[in-house]
């Protein structure tokens, strides 16, 4: 394993120092407590958005803290959900009196740790709502299992709910739109190579020179099946079929499409793959209303990509277009 | 001497710390196969913090020690195992009254710990989780006490049962936790949390044997 | 080699289709002629900035086309400079009558192809100025060799000269500021793994499990020396020492610092490395006035990073802060 | 028949296309060692386009064919080799008058081509570039003509000299082009452009031998 680190034990802490140094004007990084917040103090009466999860998915979540998106992010150890203390510290810092929305990716650990934090915050009299993001169609949803994973749709939820919160909506409304976005979003991922966690020191799974892992998650979990590499055109069909199967779309639906790199896939390949996906979507009568191509919800140095589509409507597109100013996502006035 | 002294509990927790350190790589390897490869470092981080916390505050009762350990795990581990082990130790600690409880009281505490895990995680035996080691361990501990064994023998029986329970997860299809994403591909692998639970019970047996 | 491509021969063309599909509102992609321009027609009287180079360095250059930066980019084949026909087509499309600045990275092929285009454009009566970017201190500069390579400073030159052009400055002034930025910028890169071109199908060079390539370029050329991997803290010193040796800085100099990922390095590691670099710069009395951490001038899926520092002044910082709206770089109103 | 016919030039250029195709991987491998690994695909792309352009416009004179080939290389190859080979062929083509020039005129054309490369790239023999194959090839061609050889023998001598020149680049330290970034680490590798230049001259020899 070759990485720009000092020691596997101090990766997240050391990276937080760098995060602070890189964004001194816009972010406040509390390295000791593991909390990233906006530089400005919370606006009274604004619903606060707090998210977090294991590190290794950057720019998610710390890179999405800023006007128009998150108020705080709690980075856990690599691929390990944060602890309740972090969420409580975040809530204490960013709560503006109008309640706090926890945006939680649906993983057992994340769910439990955020739940514990929510209970403790509620005991302190702070109103907490939680949205669980579970968009990954590679995982069968069932009440007997851990349910679908949260992946690319997290960006959609954080962006759109963040925009509504910025407009002054109340907690119920912000939580509602967050849930709506999640319900209408589905993702599917394919890996060409696994990523390597500093702690494990070797790839999460080994693939032969012509093998790919289909239906992978963002934590180096192996996927649903191992298959043979095929031209981008064919893989594009695999992405599109998998997502559309779970998310039927008509040509009347506006959509937001994210083609996300997992960390080690060059932008050149992502654009190429996006071209194939866009052509397929057009064939099937799906209109791409907004799109995003790049590394947003990564898995360390995994080579691969995920496709996320949100079946939007006019209001969601408007919220998507609202200004956002974060290290990882910026547009609007 | 067949009571659960504070020293015994402290020795137990310190032994867990040692065993987790020794087996961290193995736990991580198991977790890499069907999870995300962090179980070893998660528990290692947690129990190093537990040892530090116990040294700092030198608790004067077994229940206090377990509660502190549980709280520390919750605050330092994260992931699925942090809240689960943390809640288990906290629930066990809260159940354990007095400075030298009897083995029967430890059984109640362990049962409360198991209950906490099952309530928080929603897993039942056969789901391929730590519950598959925890449940038979508590049952074996209970059975041994019922059969008249003392603390050392009951703990050893619990450890044996936990190890057997861990091995029993190999053929199972995971239905809870991260391994459940793999569906049938999770078969053929031992659950890392079940293996770490077996380490915890073996540590109890070794501490009680001294 | 596992990549999201259809065939090594069609990578750039296929990717251009995706680039067009991803940015229909802001960019115009002429796939046949190999030219990316802004969606809006050229403003009369504005100096036009045209850049280009081999593909595989995305977002450079196509991702830097837009208000406040480039008017056009000419993507060559992977790691191969574009042909003069592309630059001529770009000039024909974006020339607003006030002259055109070619931003050229100093590589033999790029220099020759842009030179040929400049001669032909001049024959057509269009005024062309050229700035050669040569910031890489790993290469010894000498008139007997090809000279220093152009790497990270290209982003600084395109951003700052683009801002001045947007303000209506004339060609001489825009070319002057471009050259000034180049003269005041220096870069140094370290690779942990080489990238793989689709044509070659295997990494540009092979490194052992503990080896790194120090002083590499952005084309998979091996570097100056092969060394053993060390903690990020030590490598940070290597980056900082190499750059500062060639670019003496006093604490009175404002600086712009780019810590650039080469394509396959996770943001988590880049931030960590930036933290170490920032700490070292502070120790040496260097003030980081502006910074950028991310994958901007990449080398396909090379794992590694480059540090670029520009010794700025108030005016350059102002131009840096001016609004920019491109797929790869966005800020300001 | 010892004149430079249009057919001969077309056959030469077609042969270069074939040889480049056959040796594309080798050229790329050489370029990977001390460059950026694209020399094979660059020339392959270029000469495929040359063959297509020649087929489309069937030039009626040798000079016309070479000029068209040069223009096509400039418009399709890019990199360093595109302008260099393109300018060489264009300069050679412009020098070559009439429909059946004599071998001495081809020598002038080749000399003009070499001059174009040296002027554009600024490389001198010993810099570890295509000039190290091109220069001795032209010299050998001239010497052979002076010694009374016909076109086939002179071309074969040029090809031999080009191959020897290419091999002579192995110990050199590159001073021009991408390999110069390596400094002394470029030693021990054959220059890809010198090798492709040898292919071009060998193709001429084979075309002239028919
Ligand atoms: N719902 C659950 N109930 C009980 N145990 C669980 C549950 N989910 C996960 N586990 C246990 O946690 C272990 C994984 O712990 P760890 O790797 O530390 O956390 P994470 O899965 O968040 O990375 C699994 O091997 C399993 O034994
Ligand atoms: N200045 C120069 N003069 C002559 N030949 C050169 C010069 N620079 C490069 N070359 C030749 O070009 C070859 C490389 O061509 P190619 O790989 O196609 O272009 P690039 O270096 O742009 O990738 C080198 O092997 C060398 O022979
Ligand atoms: Mg984890
Ligand atoms: Mg785990
Ligand atoms: Mg090249
Ligand atoms: Mg080359």
UniProtKB/TrEMBL annotation, chains A, C:
Pfam families hit by this protein: Dak1
Keyword Transferase assigned: yes
Organism: Nocardiopsis ansamitocini
GO molecular function (one): glycerone kinase activity
Biological process according to GO: glycerol catabolic process
GO cellular component: cytosol
Domain DhaK positions: 7-331
Keyword Amino-acid biosynthesis part of the UniProt annotation: no
Keywords, in A-Z order: Kinase, Transferase
Protein name in the entry: Dihydroxyacetone kinase subunit DhaK
Automatic annotation (TrEMBL), chains B, D:
Record-level GO BP terms: glycerol catabolic process
Keywords associated with the record: Kinase, Transferase
A Gene Ontology term for the protein's cellular component: cytosol
InterPro entries, per database record: DhaK_L_YcgS (IPR012737), DhaL_dom (IPR004007), DhaL_dom_sf (IPR036117), Dihydroxyacetone_Kinase (IPR050861)
Tree of life domain: Bacteria
Domain DhaL: from-to ranges: 7-206
Keyword Magnesium among record annotations: no
Molecular-function annotations in GO: glycerone kinase activity
Transferase recorded as keyword: yes
NCBIfam families per UniProt: dha_L_ycgS
Protein name (record): Dihydroxyacetone kinase subunit L
